[in-house]
């Protein structure tokens, strides 16, 4: 297979994925999450229903696709970046903060409504938070030079990442449809506070764990 052929196939895959996302977004807004079927999403994208599953394993996955991208970006930064885990988390949040005040607002309203209709949607949102926490904890273990039996990296990561739930409608800190007027600033302020607590906890236990 030539590189040109591979390039065309990859371009076609991106086009199909984008079409599925656009179809799902439009149908979710028009019909609601619960009433939208995978068959309808596929039809709106001009593909067969079985093609949908070549791009997304579930309907929840296409709803949460931006979060999958965000999580992958953080995982890559934690894997390759020069900074420690908590600094990397903060840098990642700042880099994406504008999204929370723009495109995310419509998605947030949709997720809130869908969560009320289908508990699997709420669980998917919480799994996103868990994914971030696991990634941060894994890097913290490397930063601290501790093994899997040390629970402190898990606790510190959970404390830091929990601040991000202010952005999610299923989060304990958020109950209004639109969230705070300046969602990104609230998110970053809460994250900085949480990271401060996490760092203090790590420092406080260092002599005990050394």
From TrEMBL:
Matching SUPFAM superfamilies: Homeodomain-like
Protein origin, superkingdom: Bacteria
Keywords: DNA-binding, Transcription, Transcription regulation
Any Pfam family the entry gives: TetR_N
Single Gene Ontology MF annotation: transcription cis-regulatory region binding
DNA-binding annotation, residue ranges on this chain: 37-56
Domain (HTH tetR-type) ranges: 14-74
Protein name: AcrR family transcriptional regulator
């Amino acid at each position: 297979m030539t590189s040109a052929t591979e390039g065309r196939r990859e371009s076609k895959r991106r086009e199909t994925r984008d079409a599925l996302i656009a179809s799902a977004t439009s149908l979710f807004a028009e019909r609601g999450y619960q009433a939208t079927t995978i068959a309808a999403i596929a039809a709106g994208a001009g593909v067969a229903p079985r093609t949908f599953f070549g791009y997304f394993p579930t309907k929840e996955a296409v709803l949460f696709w931006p979060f999958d991208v965000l999580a992958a970006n953080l995982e890559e930064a934690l894997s390759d970046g020069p900074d420690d885990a908590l600094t990397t988390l903060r840098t990642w949040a700042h880099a994406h903060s504008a999204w929370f005040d723009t495109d995310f607002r419509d998605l947030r309203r949709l997720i809130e409504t869908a969560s009320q209709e289908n508990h699997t949607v709420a669980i998917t949102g919480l799994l996103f938070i868990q994914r971030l926490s696991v990634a941060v904890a894994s890097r913290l273990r490397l930063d601290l030079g501790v093994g899997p039996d040390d629970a402190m990296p898990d606790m510190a990561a959970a404390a830091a990442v929990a601040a991000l739930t202010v952005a999610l409608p299923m989060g304990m800190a958020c109950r209004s449809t639109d969230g705070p007027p300046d969602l990104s600033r609230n998110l970053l302020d809460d994250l900085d506070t949480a990271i401060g607590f996490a760092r203090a906890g790590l420092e406080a236990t260092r002599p005990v764990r050394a």
